[in-house]
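User: Teach me something about this protein's shape.
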Amino acid sequence: MTLREARCKFSSALASLILQAEALGYEIALDEGMERLTAKDPTSDHMPGSLHHSGLAQDVLLYLNGEYLTRTEDYTALGEFWEGLGKTLNLPLAWGGRFTHKDGNHFSLTWGGKS
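Assistant: First, the predicted structure itself:
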């Protein structure tokens, strides 16, 4: 799979995640715009080489009843949906809630050994 193909498949899967979040009653926001990331803006808090810079990862912010949800546990239902979607689509989708250093709002497509 080329990077272009991976980015397109990731974007399509992300759209499904957004729709699932809305169906569960959440409001969502995407943490960073690709403009900042692709411009290599020094204010970006993602490490150089991050999948965020490749368009293969997105931080999703969840809100419920106007409250911003910050705990990894708040993202479990969406993380499990994302992992199941990966199996259905035969894509290596990864959820940050499974990382050693939990990052519950991180959703990505594994690429080059990174998630």
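Now, about its shape. The first helix runs from residue 3 to 23. Residues 3 and 73 are 31 Å apart (CA to CA). If you'd like, I can walk through any region in more detail.
User: That's plenty for now, thanks!
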